[in-house]
Amino acid sequence: MSDSPQVLGAPVVRREGRDKVTGTARYAAEHTAPGCLYGWVVPATVASGRVTAIRTADALAVPGVHTVLTHDNAPRLNEPDDPILAVLQDDRVPHRGWPVALVVAGSPEAARAGAAAVHVEYVTTGHDVVLTGDHPALYTPEEANGGHPGLRERGDAMRAFDAAPVRIDAVYTLHPLHNHPMEPHASTALWADGHLTVHDSSQGSTAVRDSLAQALGLDRGSITVVSEHVGGGFGSKGTPRPQAVLAAMAARHTGLPVQIALPRRYMASIVGHRAPTLQRVRLGADRDGVLSSVSHEIVTQTSRIKEFVEQAAVPARVMYASPHSRTEHRVAALDVPSPSWMRAPGEASGMYALESAMDELACALGLDPVELRLRNEPRTEPDSGRPFSSRNLAACLTEGARRFGWSLRDPQPAVREEGPWLLGTGVASATYPVLVSKSVASAQAAPDGSYRIRVNATDIGTGARTVLAQIAASVLGTAPENVRVDIGSSDLPTASVAGGSSGTASWGSAVHKAATALAHRVAGHAGPLPPEGIAVTADTGQETAQESPYARHAFGAHFAEVAVDSLTGEVRVRRLLGMYAAGRILNSRTARSQFIGGMVMGLGMALTEGSTVDPAFGDFTESDLASYHVPSCADVPDIQAHWIDEDDRHLNPMGSKGIGEIGIVGTAAAIGNAVRHATGARLRELPLTPDKLLPYLP
């Protein structure tokens, strides 16, 4: 049975939208059972050391406080699958903000007051929280995040660079960034008859269930984790976080339901962040702009708890043809919170540096930046030699340039003025890999003509329920409203996390397979369906276990127009246009929302978002939304997202690629390149705040 084009690609309104705007959609901290207690974390106030004493008498005297859990009385855990989950198990303090106690009370207010009354004594050791390019502890890891080799070399990049007639050698700096989803990380845990139920703000409840089973020493069947509605995550909810373990421990200890919602100012220390990177990019080219050498070297940090290496050099292995290449990651373990995934990890960081360097090369050559990229299009993936399943970056660049009006651009910098404003435009490319993981789904046909899909997908605001209904409906030959979709519970058929722009491809492939099998079963059934209907289950383990012979990536091009106030240094983005090649777009309405959302996040990365670690105290100084500035409505300009329809038969049954992250990847570089065009000043450190620009303005 073939897919119906009238269903896939249509701008179907997300089915949970009304529930969200009317408040009937319930999130993790809104499942409050009778007798529920509330937990409040007590964070460590030193950057490195050990707890020598925790005095809880004053906290227990606060009206409403039920108990205080510390490493002395908290339930013992088995070694968890992630070291950040080993909370309240010993007296160590690996970084500032590490949970050293949990106050449990009858109200959030009492828990907060009790936490303030806990007195903790420490013995401190010297701490190191400052990343430098020559840090003595730097080493080259065997792998970076995602299993990518830490070092890759083709040819002799350094010799080719030295011989190149035109060379760019520049260092780009990105400070730590924080995910800051609208819904904070929260968990509500309840034990009943030996069964643990946890409502968790997570991008994958199956993973949370499995981690809790490991840590608590339980059978997986004794745990249900529900993540029915999730208010964003951007990667920070892609792995289980300590509040889920703490809530389960406290509920076991007290015998009552326990709810924990992390205050926003605690999130930077507990739930991960985008690690800072110092990136050296060296490009060697002939005078026609054809690259002969690409070198991208990353210096980043991880924590003492576990190794996490931002894979920022990996995009340079994909983007441009060059016979010689060297891409390396170097990392130092510091006394800092553990970095983790943040939207487009690796690509967002690495492409900022690479695409800025490409712009610098275009300026050095006197060549149009779009034309430079077109001259370096590879025929196969440079790093692996595999053919691309589809690569329409050139089409994105040319069509995006046409829609943006790029041909009207004066290439000379600092020549366009509008009163005190200096105007400029910039471009950058984008890429993101096609990822897919094993998932299981069931499909059921009922006698009344309706259908039911069951799969443990997670909707983090992307409209997963809606697009999965469209996929099933397209196969079953029915309208999406005739398809019910159950997601968000670990009791459902197992599915992968909502991360890496892989959710729709992973879950959708399983749904497509189950719906296809169901359609054949129904077609072969004689007479009316039985009262219980007909159901089939399908998994994609075999399909996802096979390595594709193709290099599979989404591509895009970002164009930006900025205005820089010559008196204040303020940067205003006037226009953003993204042009994408991301396979088959399954829902034009939700896809446009995803692209634009990523572009807004890239705008924040370029202009407003940045974090620093206080070297004396070892904590993030920008720990709330008053100091960590995300874009507001006033910052969001005319943003357009367009795409090229791709017919790629080497992806999945829907022909789709991930779209949730590619929108952020090139945006910051496009804005930075536009600022250079407006002012003539090349700044290589984000965010581009007025204090950095003012010294370069007339």
Overview of the molecule:
By secondary structure, the chain is an alpha+beta fold. It has 17 helices and 27 strands. It has a seven-stranded mixed sheet with strand order 3-5-1-14-11-12-13, sandwiched between helices. Strands 9-17-16-15-10-27 form a six-stranded mixed sheet, with helices on both faces. Strands 18-19-24-25-26 form a five-stranded mixed sheet, sandwiched between helices.
Which helices and strands occur, and which strands form pairs?
Elements: H1 17-22, E1 37-43, E2 49-55, H2 57-60, E3 65-69, E4 92-93, E5 99-105, H3 108-116, E6 119-124, E7 143-144, E8 148-149, E9 151-154, H4 157-163, E10 166-174, E11 186-192, E12 195-200, H5 205-216, E13 223-226, H6 242-254, E14 258-261, H7 264-270, E15 277-285, E16 291-303, E17 324-334, H8 347-365, H9 369-375, H10 393-404, E18 416-418, E19 421-433, E20 440-445, E21 451-454, H11 464-476, E22 483-486, H12 503-523, E23 534-539, H13 541-545, E24 553-565, E25 571-581, H14 588-607, E26 638-643, H15 662-665, H16 667-679, E27 685-686, H17 690-693
Query: Largest beta sheet, briefly?
Result: 7 strands, mixed
> What is the number of E strands?
27
Indicate the proportion of strand residues.
15-25%
How far the N terminus sits from the C terminus, by CA atoms, comes to: 66 Å
Unreliable parts: none
Report Rg.
26 Å
Level of helix content?
A: 25-40%
What is the number of helices?
A: 17
Q: Mean of residue pLDDT?
A: 97
Shape: globular
Class per helix and strand makeup: alpha+beta
For the biggest β-sheet, the strand order reads 3-5-1-14-11-12-13
